Amino acid sequence: MKKINILLVCNAGMSTSLLIEKIEKAGVDQAIETSVDARPVDDVKNHLKEKDVILLGPQVRFKEKQIKALVADEIPVAVIDMSAYGTMNGEKVLQQAISLIKE
């Protein structure tokens, strides 16, 4: 599998920093090369280059339609599973990203 470039979106870009570490560790454990970037919701349009998937933190799920319109179906967009986000389950979030890319 090629390198997976993931953009995590939250309110300020900070609440996802621990999740980034967990996703990258899950990638290493599964021999999947990942690049994970976290950005605040208002800065998404400046960070779309070379992204394979965009995952929104549950706290910004209300922006999902707006971000989907911004990427015009060129990049899969979804809200991170609430339980995976709450428990910082990097493996589950990585699997969600992979599933979206394969669709």
UniProtKB/TrEMBL annotation:
PROSITE patterns: PTS_EIIB_TYPE_3. Gene3D superfamilies: 3.40.50.2300. GO terms for biological process: phosphoenolpyruvate-dependent sugar phosphotransferase system. Signal peptide: none annotated. Residues 3-103 form the PTS EIIB type-3 domain. The modification Phosphocysteine is found at residue 10. It comes from the Bacteria. Keywords: Kinase, Phosphoprotein, Phosphotransferase system, Sugar transport, Transferase, Transport. One of its GO terms (molecular function) is protein-N(PI)-phosphohistidine-sugar phosphotransferase activity. SUPFAM superfamilies: PTS system IIB component-like. PANTHER family: PTS SYSTEM N,N'-DIACETYLCHITOBIOSE-SPECIFIC EIIB COMPONENT (PTHR34581:SF2). This is PTS sugar transporter subunit IIB. It comes from Enterococcus florum. The lineage of its organism: Bacteria, Bacillati, Bacillota, Bacilli, Lactobacillales.
